[in-house]
Amino acid sequence: MPQAKRIAGYDELNENEFAYWTETGGWYLNLPGCGVATLRKHEVTEHEDGTITASPSIKTWGHDENGNEVVMHGYLERGVWRDC
To answer: 57-73, pLDDT tens digit by residue?
Structure first.
């Protein structure tokens, strides 16, 4: 997966892009094909280059275009997603 793009907020979200943003309530992450995950239960570190690292690992689920459940589990380190 490519490096995540930081966007200003949900209104700028293209659901096909790997993106993160902060709004009232904390940080959010969009994983294409899975949907939006909240990072409220994660420690998020914002780096000097604007990327973020979230820990512990992120596990989220959503539905694909056919309604099938999709589960993603991985790490976000300096804006780069790595599957577990």
So the answer is: 999 999 888 889 999 99
Q: What angle do CA 28, 34, 35 make, to 5 degrees?
A: 40
CA 65 to chain centre: 19
Q: Cβ distance 23 to 10 under 8 Å? A: yes
Question: Looking up tokens 């539905």, which residue turns up?
Answer: 63
Whether pTM > 0.85 for this model: the answer is yes
Taking phi over 0 as left and psi of -120 to 50 as alpha, with beta for the rest, 67 belongs to left
12-43 pLDDT tens trace: 999 899 999 999 889 999 999 888 999 999 99
Ramachandran quadrant class, 78 (left: phi over 0; alpha: psi -120 to 50; beta: rest): left
